[in-house]
Design brief:
The complex is a heterodimer. By secondary structure, chain A is an alpha/beta fold. Among the domains of chain A are: about 230 residues, Dimethylsulfoxide Reductase, domain 2, CATH 3.40.228.10; about 150 residues, Barwin-like endoglucanases (Beta Barrel), CATH 2.40.40. Chain A has 22 helices and 31 strands. In chain A, a hairpin with a 2-residue loop joins strand 19 and strand 20. In chain A, helix 4 runs antiparallel to helix 7, helix 4 packs parallel to helix 10 and helix 14 crosses helix 16. Chain A starts with 12 loop residues before the first strand and ends with a strand. Chain B has one domain: Alpha-Beta Plaits. Chain B is about 25% helix and about 15% strand. Chain B contains seven helices and eleven strands. Chain B has a four-stranded mixed beta sheet with strand order 9-2-11-10. In chain B, strands 1-5-6 form a three-stranded antiparallel beta sheet, with no helix packed on it. Chain B is elongated and about 85 Å long. The chains are: A alpha/beta, B alpha+beta. At the A-B interface, helix 2, helix 3, helix 21 and strand 27 of A face helix 1, strand 4 and helix 6 of B.
Amino acid sequence: MTNHWADIQNADLVLIMGGNAAEAHPCGFKWVTEAKAHNKARLIVVDPRFNRSASVADLYAPIRTGTDIAFLGGLINYLLANDKIQHEYVRNYTDVSFVVKEGFAFEDGLFNGYDAAKRSYPDKSAWSYEIGADGYAVVDPSLSHPRCVFNLLKNHYSRYTPELVSSVCGTPQETMLKVWEAIAETSRPDKVMTIMYALGWTQHSVGSQMIRTGAMVQLLLGNIGMPGGGMNALRGHSNIQGLTDLGLLSNLLPGYLTLPGDGEQDYAAYIAKRTQKPLRPGQLSYWQNYEKFHVSLMKAWYGKSATVENNWAYDWLPKLDAPGAGYDVLKVFDMMFQGQINGYFCQGFNPIAAFPNKAKVGAALARLKYLVIMDPLATDTSEFWRNAGEFNDVDTAAIQTTVFRLPTTCFAEEDGSLVNSGRWLQWHWKAAEPPGEARTDIAIMAGLFHRLRALYAKEGGAFPEPILNLDWPYLRPDDPAPDELAREFNGRALADVSDPASGAVLAKAGEQLAGFAQLRADGSTASGCWIFSGSWTQAGNQMARRDNADPYGMGQTLGWAWAWPANRRILYNRASADPSGQPWDPAKKRLVWWNGKAWAGTDVPDFKPDSAPQDGMSPFIMNPEGVARFFALDKMAEGPFPEHYEPFETPIGRNPLHGNVQAVSNPAARVFKNDLELFGKAEEFPFVATTYRLTEHFHYWTKHCRLAAITQPEQFVEIGEALARERGITAGDRVKVSSNRGFIKAVAVVTKRLRPLTVDGKTVHQVGIPIHWGFSGVAKNGFITNTLTPFVGDGNTQTPEFKSFLVNVEKV
Amino acid sequence: MASQDITARSATTTPMPQVRQVGEVAKLIDTSKCIGCKACQVACSEWNELRAEVGHNVGVYDNPNDLGADSWTLIRFAEYENPASGNLEWLIRKDGCMHCADPGCLKACPSPGAIVKYANGIVDFNQDKCIGCGYCISGCPFDVPRLSQKDHKAYKCTLCSDRVAVGLEPACVKTCPTGAIVFGSKQDMQMHAAERIEDLKERGFAQAGLYDPAGVGGTHVMYVLHHADQPSLYAGLPEAPAISPLVELWKGVTKPLALLAMGAAVLAGFFHYVRVGPNRVDEEPDPGEPTVHQVDPSVHVVDPNKQP
């Protein structure tokens, strides 16, 4: 989230799209209720299903799953055509005036530089700004240059007319225009909309671009950085934000630092690439501090072994030989399926249930020599070899994988912190002793580390240094304590750290650091995750604070827990003030302002605290140009502007925006050959399906919990009344739902909440399939929903396309 | 809870002892804020240690499918196509005991003390005294109590009388994530409801209103409804609930009549006794019987008109 849960109370309009907050985030949803009750906010829900969020919405619009870029692209066109944009904001805080290089082009569904054989854009050099003789990006404040971002944007979305959008999305035009009108009203500086989205946007082959389109709408309306505004990703697990923060993805290092690629063997070049100079005069370009964060990380990992002479142990860092998302789960399981991986650690993950195409995942697991499961529960994956009748019809005797089940503690059985969607690190205390032989994940990993290190010490090996030199300063080496790790993430001074200007000592050697501003690139500081710096200072554990005082009545509660970065609650909050430094709406939306000497306010300013408005520094300090980008440069796989592409399994078989057969579905998405062959066609699988969670359950965990099982005992699918009539199905019947990858059987819930849509001149029925069931647990055993889903991911993140695929439905 | 002041007790005519003046409580359920998450169902089961069977899905979201001796509250879902707006509405209502001011269950119950009403308005069942006759079920205008298959006693929501007695809110209120269920004095709840109704009217629900039906003397569980003119849209919430005429007959007109009839029978017996004398078995007269009858002085009334 750019903002946070409690801040939703400040919204005037809440758009829930690509998510179902009432269903999947009922506790956070209270802030929507709060905004409605006390701020007279309106709630709009755009979703394939009339869902629990829609049940309390002021306006609901149906949409065909996977077409959100068309819907939002149409909205961008509508806002531009009807002049419903926050002009001053857009002109000053975004890249509209920047001139794009000659050579950038978009034609027939593809941007310039496409290579069909590689399914990617190997040459993105034209996707950048024109650079002037002064070394800065060229801008045209008059917005008249034909290649300035504003005109390119306008031109790109001019094709997204209401008629075409309605035909792609299936949203009735009248309803769609009502939604657009309501959203357009928040272009006023005193009206703010928040966008709440979740896996309904991320789990598409164009998921990242959907989110970008939403962000572009918010920029046009001037809603980024505002209280009650922003782009708010509702995270699906309690600590999944912590997972990305700590860099658990294979291409990341903690704090969104990035792992070097195979071609980046030179340390200086690695740093230089990541410390970009400002692209406009007077801009901060905060990532220029990258080396301070990187060196501090390496000092936290390798201690005295990381020295200036060995480039801070740069050679010991893995160099990623897979482009893009690196070794994402789809790639790893495809490799396992191909027999290229023979051992796998499954820590808090239930892939046979949670990943697409169960048949492929199950076959891949069966090719392993060993599988280690670290989990508090006996997951379906830990029993992938067990024949559970038609729910898991495997030949047990043919599976030779050795499965080790290591029972772990759950969150309530250990101290620690959880990072919520709003980036708050909240410390929690152990409430109960773990049962049986359960041990913490930390203890298990520590045990593994010591055994591996002993083997390396004894036997040597290909590359022992990264393991042998790892610093391990914990009081109990076999079981590091959560508070020790938390202090390490925050960071401490290894030598006295002083203010470069005044020379005053900021932190003495051995002291905890106050924040990431004190990190140094000379090896005098260590910090395991720079964005967490400030969470456990010399004053103690800031995450354990529980002061909910709200002196300004803006709901920012700076004394409650601790938010990264720097306890800042709303990112880009400098943009909540106008260029002269005063809040756009001083009455109801005051967040930060220039008080004549410094930036101050109800939140921690996201800005250089002493940069006066007349200095001309722009609010988006992480970008070298200082402003927010409509034009994504070369950062996205599919191109600088989001374009609508059909889901890989499309019910209409063509892209109504352009006739190019190469550009029906995401042209830059990676597809493995064995999966390509398994995509279904509308002739055989005529209905659009989408998967989702229910309030009553949490993923595949709560089927082990009796009370949750009572409230939603048995697997079901949701079918609209029209489709049910067509197929002779009544509520309570058992139905078989099949895709080109397999089938499930479940009870039919027949509902008015799923209506047939008219798409591209055809009637399209949508089928809703909840996840949650499997062949273990106390709920009625059932089929794994991901038997049906396609094994293809988003072009940038490789998050699987769970939300849009084709099925057939028959009565059993 | 024993420490609470009882104002009414089933099958008991003796007046209740003087009670302290305590305010009436109420739970307000705002259907316009309810998202049907069922956290209330789970909290109720947790607090009251209820564990229903893991059932089946019968083609709807309502699970368990009905109230039960182990399921005292239940979210009911109803899909409604509003003919006026053309909009689909998913009306979601938490079902359970309404804690009527004039409780039909209590009125129908023949077992002394099995059902009591406290001064704060809570209607509670005492399973120790329940005889399992099920009259409370037919007496309830909302079809709420259920007989247990295990011990053949009737169960329903207690409004967490044990929590309320020590100043806590009911478990469902405590857990409700959206604040759709709130708890307080009945007066405060009515005021809160008025604010919510104003908000709903401003959002286009002209008929929004409070459900606190007079037919049962008002309730201590109230609803804010978008369509207060059509409560039955909410999975059959009664339009004008009242105690069943049979119960009214049974405890209303019939009871005094029956008492009258019983009194008349006693009186008739008495008159028969004093006029005709006791029944005698004449076949074998006891020759040793004294000629003067001993009359029990406690029942004997001296009739001056009668010659000794």
